Request: fold
Amino acid sequence: MQLNEMSFKDAVPVDGYGPGFFRVADQVLEGPLLMTATDVLPWGGLDDSAALLALAGQIDVVFVGTGAEIAHIPNALRTELEAAGLGVETMSSPSACRTFNVLLSEGRRVAVAAIPV
Reply:
């Protein structure tokens, strides 16, 4: 197996996560967060569609991390995001962070909105 080192240029990846927090750029951030290549913002969770809709036109896909386990997001939220032209992928928060980091290193237009484990 060949391993490739990821580089992020000007982007900021998720460094780690744990019970109730995420670590980004050596800072511990508590609670849900929303990240793009250049921004790290607090997120209001699955009831906060406005923060995600504000990304329309800037990103192609948002990875929604639902905590320690994968769960369905509300149908109304998915419908709103897809109507705005945003792709939505739902997964556990650890998977969402890893997927975000990989695609971010490829220069893709992605975001992650995650609830802590």
